[in-house]
Write a sequence for this structure.
Protein backbone atom coordinates (compact mmCIF):
# COMPACT_ATOMS: atom_id res chain seq x y z
CA UNK A 1 0.00 0.00 0.00
CA UNK A 2 1.00 3.59 -0.54
CA UNK A 3 0.81 4.40 3.18
CA UNK A 4 3.21 1.56 3.97
CA UNK A 5 5.71 2.76 1.36
CA UNK A 6 5.44 6.34 2.58
CA UNK A 7 5.94 5.14 6.14
CA UNK A 8 9.12 3.39 5.09
CA UNK A 9 10.29 6.56 3.32
CA UNK A 10 10.11 8.39 6.64
CA UNK A 11 10.65 12.02 5.62
CA UNK A 12 8.49 15.10 6.31
CA UNK A 13 6.84 15.04 2.89
CA UNK A 14 5.86 11.39 3.35
CA UNK A 15 4.48 12.19 6.83
CA UNK A 16 2.36 15.01 5.38
CA UNK A 17 0.95 12.72 2.68
CA UNK A 18 0.16 9.96 5.20
CA UNK A 19 -1.51 12.50 7.46
CA UNK A 20 -3.65 13.76 4.57
CA UNK A 21 -4.64 10.19 3.68
CA UNK A 22 -5.62 9.37 7.27
CA UNK A 23 -7.51 12.67 7.72
CA UNK A 24 -9.44 12.03 4.53
CA UNK A 25 -10.11 8.36 5.32
CA UNK A 26 -11.26 8.96 8.90
CA UNK A 27 -14.22 10.97 7.56
CA UNK A 28 -15.30 8.13 5.28
CA UNK A 29 -14.17 4.93 7.00
CA UNK A 30 -12.48 5.18 10.41
CA UNK A 31 -11.50 1.49 10.37
CA UNK A 32 -9.67 2.00 7.08
CA UNK A 33 -8.04 5.15 8.47
CA UNK A 34 -6.87 3.17 11.50
CA UNK A 35 -5.40 0.50 9.22
CA UNK A 36 -3.59 3.17 7.20
CA UNK A 37 -2.20 4.56 10.42
CA UNK A 38 -1.22 1.09 11.63
CA UNK A 39 0.82 0.23 8.56
CA UNK A 40 2.43 3.65 8.17
CA UNK A 41 4.92 3.14 10.96
CA UNK A 42 6.69 5.89 12.88
CA UNK A 43 6.04 8.52 10.22
CA UNK A 44 2.39 8.63 11.33
CA UNK A 45 2.96 8.48 15.07
CA UNK A 46 1.98 12.02 16.03
CA UNK A 47 -1.39 11.91 14.26
CA UNK A 48 -2.95 9.31 16.54
CA UNK A 49 -3.74 11.65 19.41
CA UNK A 50 -5.10 14.54 17.35
CA UNK A 51 -6.69 12.79 14.36
CA UNK A 52 -7.73 9.23 15.16
CA UNK A 53 -8.02 8.90 18.91
CA UNK A 54 -10.83 11.45 19.43
CA UNK A 55 -12.87 9.96 16.58
CA UNK A 56 -12.42 6.35 17.70
CA UNK A 57 -13.18 7.08 21.37
CA UNK A 58 -16.29 9.04 20.41
CA UNK A 59 -17.35 6.23 18.07
CA UNK A 60 -16.84 3.66 20.82
CA UNK A 61 -19.15 5.75 23.00
CA UNK A 62 -22.04 5.26 20.56
CA UNK A 63 -25.07 3.40 21.86
CA UNK A 64 -25.12 0.95 18.93
CA UNK A 65 -23.26 -2.30 19.59
CA UNK A 66 -22.39 -2.50 15.89
CA UNK A 67 -20.71 0.91 16.06
CA UNK A 68 -18.87 -0.06 19.24
CA UNK A 69 -17.63 -3.26 17.55
CA UNK A 70 -16.35 -1.27 14.57
CA UNK A 71 -14.63 1.18 16.90
CA UNK A 72 -12.90 -1.73 18.66
CA UNK A 73 -11.76 -3.11 15.31
CA UNK A 74 -10.35 0.31 14.41
CA UNK A 75 -8.58 0.68 17.76
CA UNK A 76 -6.92 -2.70 17.30
CA UNK A 77 -6.03 -1.86 13.68
CA UNK A 78 -3.92 1.08 14.85
CA UNK A 79 -1.55 -1.35 16.58
CA UNK A 80 -1.21 1.24 19.34
CA UNK A 81 -1.54 0.78 23.07
CA UNK A 82 -3.40 4.12 23.33
CA UNK A 83 -6.71 2.27 23.60
CA UNK A 84 -5.55 -0.32 26.13
CA UNK A 85 -7.84 1.18 28.79
CA UNK A 86 -10.90 0.31 26.71
CA UNK A 87 -9.60 -3.07 25.58
CA UNK A 88 -8.62 -4.16 29.10
CA UNK A 89 -12.03 -3.10 30.36
CA UNK A 90 -13.59 -5.50 27.87
CA UNK A 91 -11.09 -8.33 28.27
CA UNK A 92 -11.40 -8.31 32.05
CA UNK A 93 -15.17 -8.03 32.17
CA UNK A 94 -16.84 -10.74 34.25
CA UNK A 95 -19.33 -11.39 31.43
CA UNK A 96 -17.82 -13.92 29.01
CA UNK A 97 -20.07 -12.70 26.18
CA UNK A 98 -18.57 -9.23 26.45
CA UNK A 99 -15.04 -10.65 26.42
CA UNK A 100 -15.73 -12.84 23.40
CA UNK A 101 -17.48 -9.98 21.58
CA UNK A 102 -14.40 -7.82 22.10
CA UNK A 103 -12.17 -10.50 20.59
CA UNK A 104 -14.54 -11.07 17.69
CA UNK A 105 -14.69 -7.36 16.90
CA UNK A 106 -10.93 -7.02 17.10
CA UNK A 107 -10.16 -9.72 14.54
CA UNK A 108 -6.41 -10.09 14.08
CA UNK A 109 -4.93 -9.23 17.45
CA UNK A 110 -1.47 -7.76 17.79
CA UNK A 111 -0.56 -7.77 21.45
CA UNK A 112 0.98 -4.30 21.23
CA UNK A 113 -2.55 -2.89 21.51
CA UNK A 114 -2.70 -4.06 25.12
CA UNK A 115 0.18 -1.80 26.11
CA UNK A 116 3.13 -2.55 28.35
CA UNK A 117 2.80 -5.20 31.02
CA UNK A 118 0.05 -7.14 29.24
CA UNK A 119 1.69 -10.51 29.91
CA UNK A 120 1.92 -9.99 33.69
CA UNK A 121 -1.72 -9.00 33.71
CA UNK A 122 -2.82 -12.08 31.75
CA UNK A 123 -0.67 -14.40 33.87
CA UNK A 124 -2.51 -13.17 36.99
CA UNK A 125 -5.88 -14.31 35.60
CA UNK A 126 -7.47 -17.62 36.63
CA UNK A 127 -6.54 -20.56 34.39
CA UNK A 128 -9.89 -20.67 32.56
CA UNK A 129 -9.51 -17.01 31.56
CA UNK A 130 -5.91 -17.60 30.42
CA UNK A 131 -7.11 -20.52 28.30
CA UNK A 132 -9.83 -18.33 26.74
CA UNK A 133 -7.27 -15.60 25.98
CA UNK A 134 -4.67 -17.98 24.55
CA UNK A 135 -7.28 -19.76 22.47
CA UNK A 136 -8.75 -16.56 21.05
CA UNK A 137 -5.48 -14.72 20.40
CA UNK A 138 -3.84 -17.92 19.20
CA UNK A 139 -6.52 -18.48 16.59
CA UNK A 140 -6.54 -14.84 15.43
CA UNK A 141 -4.02 -15.61 12.71
CA UNK A 142 -1.32 -13.28 13.98
CA UNK A 143 2.27 -14.24 14.65
CA UNK A 144 1.75 -12.79 18.13
CA UNK A 145 -0.89 -15.46 18.68
CA UNK A 146 1.43 -18.30 17.70
CA UNK A 147 4.22 -16.89 19.87
CA UNK A 148 1.80 -16.47 22.77
CA UNK A 149 0.64 -20.08 22.50
CA UNK A 150 4.24 -21.30 22.42
CA UNK A 151 5.19 -19.26 25.48
CA UNK A 152 2.22 -20.43 27.53
CA UNK A 153 2.66 -24.04 26.36
CA UNK A 154 6.13 -24.05 27.85
CA UNK A 155 5.86 -21.68 30.82
CA UNK A 156 2.35 -21.62 32.29
CA UNK A 157 2.18 -23.24 35.74
CA UNK A 158 -1.19 -24.95 35.04
CA UNK A 159 -1.09 -28.11 32.93
CA UNK A 160 -4.60 -27.43 31.55
CA UNK A 161 -3.38 -24.08 30.19
CA UNK A 162 -0.23 -25.66 28.74
CA UNK A 163 -2.27 -28.36 26.98
CA UNK A 164 -4.74 -25.86 25.46
CA UNK A 165 -1.83 -23.69 24.35
CA UNK A 166 -0.30 -26.73 22.64
CA UNK A 167 -3.63 -27.37 20.89
CA UNK A 168 -3.63 -23.83 19.53
CA UNK A 169 0.03 -24.06 18.63
CA UNK A 170 -0.50 -27.31 16.78
CA UNK A 171 -3.28 -25.88 14.60
CA UNK A 172 -1.92 -22.36 14.07
CA UNK A 173 1.86 -22.69 14.34
CA UNK A 174 4.34 -24.48 12.22
CA UNK A 175 4.91 -28.16 12.88
CA UNK A 176 8.61 -27.49 13.46
CA UNK A 177 7.81 -24.91 16.15
CA UNK A 178 5.32 -27.32 17.71
CA UNK A 179 8.01 -30.00 17.92
CA UNK A 180 10.38 -27.43 19.45
CA UNK A 181 7.76 -26.59 22.07
CA UNK A 182 7.30 -30.28 22.84
CA UNK A 183 11.02 -30.57 23.49
CA UNK A 184 10.87 -27.61 25.88
CA UNK A 185 7.86 -28.67 27.98
CA UNK A 186 8.05 -30.64 31.20
CA UNK A 187 7.51 -34.42 31.31
CA UNK A 188 3.96 -34.26 32.74
CA UNK A 189 2.77 -31.96 29.96
CA UNK A 190 4.49 -34.11 27.35
CA UNK A 191 2.85 -37.30 28.65
CA UNK A 192 -0.56 -35.62 28.78
CA UNK A 193 -0.12 -34.33 25.22
CA UNK A 194 0.84 -37.74 23.88
CA UNK A 195 -2.05 -39.38 25.77
CA UNK A 196 -4.55 -37.12 24.01
Amino acid sequence: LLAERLGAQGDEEAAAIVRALVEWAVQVDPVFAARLYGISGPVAENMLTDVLEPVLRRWYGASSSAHRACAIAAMVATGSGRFADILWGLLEDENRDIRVTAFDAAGLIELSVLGDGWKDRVEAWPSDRRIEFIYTVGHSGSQDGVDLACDFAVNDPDIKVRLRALDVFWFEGSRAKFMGALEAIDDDTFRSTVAR
About this structure: The chain has a mean pLDDT of 82. Residues 12-28 form the longest helix (17 residues).
